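Appendix B, record 7
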Amino acid sequence: MYGSSFRTNWVTIHDTNVDGHAPFNANALAHAADGTTFKRPENGRFRPGAGFRDYYFDETGDTNATSPENENQGGWCSIFKLSQNHPGASSARLSIFYRCTGTTAGFDNTTFLSHNIVAFVEDAGDTLHGQRNALDSGWAFDVTADYSDPNNQPVRWLAEGRDPSATIDSASGGFGKNDGDNEITGTEVSDGDTSVNGLLGEKSPHPFQDEKWRFFYTEQHGDNRTVEVVPAP
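Structure tokens (predicted):
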């Protein structure tokens, strides 16, 4: 619910220095440690230039227009904000930043475009694509905005279509392995800095303003292309 927040505590579910490198069931360990369950948490990022204090992450939800959880329980998807006083804090506050509506649904991956603007891309799935008669989109949000106000709406920066391979899959059932869409499986803004100073969340991105910063997204289920987003000529 918009306007509510919850106190949270970090819990350790696996420490390789103590528990070793053997395979383990992260979900079972999280439950055993009283970890919070979300509807398919997919991806998250620290707000850049904010001292690793604000973290935004999505949960993909049920990807079905008939889910009874859509209205109030995150079935369409949600974006959460986790705020902590400093990076090493043992506790934080968790709140809803954005609750999806069906037009926005199935958020998957995310990247920050600037200090204040964060982008999320959809993986709504074939069932929901058919139900809403729309494929996946990319959306941009202003983290300073209050999205409980219906006058504030995210900006669609990408409306995905089908490439030739996905079109064939759609017409023939996917040959038993693919889907009839080009899921936007990832999005990334980077200046290519692999040093400690280049950690995601350390610097505020400046795509379209500084040529070192480049903006990409990837597709899956069709030709599996990687696309660069560039300024309009």
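Remarks on this record: The chain has a mean pLDDT of 90. The first strand starts at residue 5 and ends at 9.
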